[in-house]
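User: Can you help me understand a structure? I only have the sequence.
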Amino acid sequence: MVVILLGGFVFAILCIYPLWRIFARAGLPPALSLMVFLPLGGFVAPMILAFAEWPSARGSHTRGPNALPPTR
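Assistant: Let's start by predicting it. Here is the structure, written out as tokens:
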């Protein structure tokens, strides 16, 4: 029983660190990665990343590394 709980805890920690970094770089609160500890949280956290508007990506649609120069 203890081995199962310890394995689940280690798995959650291994999931939280990358999600924490992704949420931070996306401009969203990194604490959302702690949802992995909740039931269905491992399903909800990636959904938030997939469907939320990323504040750090605002404006990148108009000016990015491959954006064309403005025309007159």
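Now, to help you interpret it: The radius of gyration is 17 Å. The chain is about 50% helix and 0% strand. Let me know which part you'd like to focus on.
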